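User: We ran a pulldown and think these components assemble together. Before we commit to crystallization trials, I'd like a predicted model of the whole complex to look at. Sequences follow.
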Amino acid sequence: MMQMNVQLLISAVILGLSMSGVYFLLTVGLSLCYGLMRMISLDQFFYYALGAYMVYTIRTLTGSFWLGVGGAILTTLVVAFIIERLINKRVYSKPVMFSMILTFGVYLMGVGLIKYIWGLTPKPVASPIGGSLNLFGTGVPGYRVFVILLAVVVYFAVQFFLNKTIVGTAIRAGIDDAEKVEVLGNNISRLFTITFIIAAALSALAGAIHAPFVMVSPEMGMSITAFAFMVVIIGGLGSIKGTMVSALIVGQVVSLGALIWAPLAEMAPFLVMMIILLIKPTGLYGSKYAGRA
Amino acid sequence: MPNIVEVKNLNAAYGQSKVLFDISLAIKPNERVSIVGRNGAGKTTLLKCMAGLLTPTNGSVVFNGMELGQKPPYEVARMGLKYIDQDKHVFLDLTVRENLQLSSYATNDYDWDKVFAHFPKLKILIDRKGAYLSGGERQMLMIGRAILGDPKVLLIDEPTEGLAPSIVDDLVTTFHELSKDCAILTVGQNLSFVSRVAERIYAMKEGKLVAEVTDEAEIKANSYSCYL
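Assistant: Here's a predicted model for the assembly, 521 residues in total across the polymer chains.
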């Protein structure tokens, strides 16, 4: 009985960590967009769904999941670039409500396009990694371990990009004050574009690697929205480290909550968010500067 | 000698509220000019219009013979018209080195020796984050960042605000040295500083230029103080 409980616990923790990985990949872009452009980019949920559908399509056509992931990222880079240049850039200087409404419109259009191209029937994507690893006597699916490791690699890659490259330095400075970056002679509009398409690519990656866990459907972006926002808010808007820590918390709360009592999986993360915000209204790693208009 | 900057009949507004009324002024290369006036006179708005941060309702800014029109601030900065604002804002999460790198990246000028020649202390503080710099050190860094790319004009808003008197004295010397390479336009209300730095003074009141003082003796005697 005791061994059974330990196995359940290990399974739940691994499940939670893999969910944290997906949440992190999806929300790091949201966090960067808000941090730099003061924009709530709801269209990231469209790129998330697009990533999943591209994996489904390319895998169906070629049989390669990994080619599908690459194709999903490349397609989304192009789509996001066009949307940013044609639509989103018009609201950067406007209050945040404008970006919410506009990008929600982009999201709805995107979902409509997905329905038009792929139809309403959910699509299955098989896991590219079969088998399982033995962890303290518990069988852990290999693909879940891969998702966890991928999220860790992406976290360090994003940290390296932000801290060790000049474009990343400019993004960090822009999160502090975009206007000051521009008066030094830096093209802030180009910086916004780079940040936005990186965010979209990460959202597409989240959708692509999440596809084998769920049925790929047009509304899949909407179903993850609440958890994604919880992660961003708990972590603190604009903070990558906060996003990672918050994703870990939310993933575990959902997974372990479900282990204790199924409805807790939905309720507990909101409770955790409320408690954290009561103690620290800016989120765990949020800057007091992030709230300014 | 032709003017490096000419502002012609400049008008500006925030929404329906008009702030600048037919401002015209000129600055010669390597000249040190100050604009004085009370809070709300429109000094900062004028500098922001010149730097491209605010679009004038009409009028023009001509820099180095070229009308700036609606060029974005980064292009104005790359052309050699650099703006340093009054809030002593350096990037708090970035080190001094990273702050300088951002400016070098924008202007493709990696010669930091000229920055350290004016502000040797920055070399010592090179790995310190902006958040841990004093007001004077932040001002040094802001000017240091701005002189990368060899600007032709520095627009400096309230350079002495919040600084200790000894640091203000150092700034006077620095501005005299900097003006060997570029023109400097400062705005502010510190009469002692203005009289020691400026070769020419404009006075602003309620969005209009109301006086120009060019006589050295009048500048030294703070004869323009009636506008403050």
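Chain A has one domain: 12-119+140-291. That may be worth checking against your pulldown data before setting up trials.

User: Thanks, that helps.
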